[in-house]
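Before the break, one more example. Copy the sequence into your notebook; we will annotate it together after we see the structure.
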Amino acid sequence: MEAVVDQLEQRLLASLESEAFRPLGLATGRTMEPLYAALVSRLRDWPTNRLELLRQHWRSFNLDEYVGLAAEHPSSFSAFMGHHLVGPLGLDPAQVSLPDGATADPEAAADRYAAAIRSAGGIDLQLLGLGSNGHVGFNEPPCGPEVRCRVVRLSSSTRSQNASAFQGRPGLVPEQAITLGLQEILAADELHLIVTGASKAGILRKALDRDGDPEVPASWLRRHPRLWLWVDDAAWGEEGP
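Here is what the structure looks like once it is written out:
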């Protein structure tokens, strides 16, 4: 994770020096936990004045949020960000935006969220994990590159994959989520796909072998001109993808 943090730190430093801080695109999940821990540790070592400047200028947008969960729900992605980044780094929660999963009109919330990103100038650097069925964000297969921020129905495999945050019970995982679409993801200036664990080796291989396959949404990332791939040995596999 240190190599990824190096990239993030340099991007943040460059943004502060140029006084042109554009929003980061953030993700959640087990893959991101050690990344945020390492990033917080690194940033806390910054000189006090520089860290305070970063706090003042920070702006980020997360990929997704469950429909039906309030921000304070312990299994919400908002709570995840509060625990792993907002609190430890001393950020204003208002600077770390997520879709409003508790709204009575999720479709309208999705439209507002996409508009907020456009108003902020779009995403600079986007962090991404890889779902076991090839999704990025919650863009479940089949999915093309034109889909926008919207409400999606989560697959049974995704709900099983995320059950650890819900007492290990897939039935407790919300059936829907608001997610950025591939259109918004691919519009980011730079993409960083982080893949860890042997369980992801097979789907990673498919994502890299296929060029824009709707059944493997992550395969569309190959068409981005500035895609970074960060893979541990277990996910790479003995023969590699």
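DSSP finds nine helices and nine strands in the chain. The mean pLDDT is 96. Try to locate both features in your own notes.
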